[in-house]
Automatic annotation (TrEMBL):
One of its GO terms (molecular function) is isomerase activity. Keywords: Carbohydrate metabolism, Isomerase. Residues 72-304 form the Xylose isomerase-like TIM barrel domain. It comes from the Bacteria. This is Sugar phosphate isomerase/epimerase. Residues 1-10 have a biased composition (Polar residues). Residues 1-25 are annotated as: Disordered. Pfam families: AP_endonuc_2 (PF01261). The keyword Cell inner membrane does not apply. It comes from Brevibacterium samyangense.
Length: 314
């Protein structure tokens, strides 16, 4: 099923497939700049005039279940959850999710559409219909946003008409589709740009975006500058960290080298209105207690730097 945007004019020229690899040099320059010109204001506590909720992503407790994500979020004092839709039935079952919302009192803040490389057939084989189904599911469970990755260059009409198509699906369903920043893949000394129209949402005509700190680290992006530029469209944040590795690390915030604290404080200062969702990698942690310590640390970090440390749950 097509979204009807096939007649949209195609760009006159596609972005180059590869460019020189500059991520590490960019990351180093950003770190050196912040070390020389610190921007964090330690003398004041800043809090947004608009509500900022802090959620827990099901990917942060993988391979635990959606039920366990809700119970962990409730126990630690999170404000809600984000559910990554996968081939597991419970991530696609609205009635099941609403029962968990009812039993824990925690809302579903957002869904993550199954647009990852290894999920080509989840929900539907047609990419546009996949997004429509995810948005309808989000509306049914009360989630205000759906996070979506940009398509791969080889995904035909979906890739060519992604920007206009996302807008159309969002208008059809009434659900915000927030396109996430990604990163170039690496091939020796070259960066391979596999995403269309680009891995970087800056300069793209999206209505809403998601910012992920780990993806920014892998790309060598200056997170503080990027968030400031994306601010008018920024609806959602994936809270994590990175140490400048070529891998997508998803570290506990504060354990990497990204200006995560500075960026959260910037959002609070600017009276941002959106959701911050913790998306850290705990899948190789052997002990449940260690995983919970990581998730509690992430929540405390978010509250502290968003000025929410006096929250009743803290």
């Amino acid at each position: 099923m097509s979204d009807g945007t096939a007649s949209t004019p195609r760009p006159s020229k596609r972005a180059p497939l590869t460019v020189p690899n500059q991520a590490r040099s960019r990351s180093r320059l950003h770190r050196e700049y912040l070390a020389k010109y610190p921007v964090y204001d330690h003398s004041e506590i800043h809090i947004s005039e608009n509500p900022i909720r802090i959620g827990l992503s099901t990917s942060s407790v993988y391979p635990m279940t959606v039920t366990e994500c809700f119970s962990t979020a409730e126990r630690l004092g999170y404000d809600g959850v984000e559910i990554m839709v996968t081939n597991h039935e419970e991530t696609q079952d609205a009635a099941f999710m609403k029962d968990l919302v009812q039993s824990t009192g925690l809302p579903v803040l957002s869904l993550h559409a199954p647009t990852l490389l290894l999920m080509p057939g989840v929900l539907h084989k047609d990419h546009w219909e996949k997004l429509r189904i995810t948005c309808r599911l989000a509306a049914e469970v009360g989630a205000g946003a759906v996070v979506v990755h940009p398509p791969f260059r080889w995904q035909g009409e979906y890739a060519r008409n992604f920007v206009s198509g996302v807008r159309r699906v969002s208008e059809e369903t009434g659900v915000t589709l927030a396109v996430e920043n990604m990163y170039p893949w690496r091939a020796g000394v070259r960066e391979v740009h596999v995403y269309s129209p680009h891995w970087n949402p800056i300069g793209q005509d999206y209505d809403a975006v998601t910012f992920d700190f780990s993806h920014a680290s892998t790309a060598g992006t200056n997170a503080l500058e990027a968030v400031a530029e994306l601010f008018p469209k920024l609806r959602h944040v994936h809270l994590t960290d990175g140490a400048g590795s070529l891998k997508d690390e998803h570290l506990v915030p504060g354990r990497g080298t990204m200006p995560v604290a500075e960026t959260l404080q910037y959002l609070a200062k600017q009276n941002w209105h959106g959701d911050v969702v913790v998306e850290v990698n705990t899948r190789f942690v052997a002990k449940r207690s260690t995983r919970e310590e990581m998730l509690a640390e992430s929540l405390g970090f978010a509250r502290r730097h968003l000025g929410l440390a006096t929250h009743p749950h803290s």
